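Data availability (excerpt). The following record was deposited with the supplementary files.
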Amino acid sequence: MTAADQFFWTFEQAVSYYQFALVNYIGFQDKGMLLAGGCGDTNGKPQIHKTPYLEQAYEFGKGIYKA
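Predicted structure:
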């Protein structure tokens, strides 16, 4: 999940929903999460290409189905 800012509370509700609804209630297996803050501001173009998150997401995705 991406966000414009990097405040500690930015992802709090999304992480809570993920843990409660998807993992605990529905029963999905938690493979982890990548929370990408600081990816630009809300009035300009996205700046995710200036962060390490694209490479991290790629590596995360490659490892999801490894035992």
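Summary of structural features: The chain has a mean pLDDT of 91.
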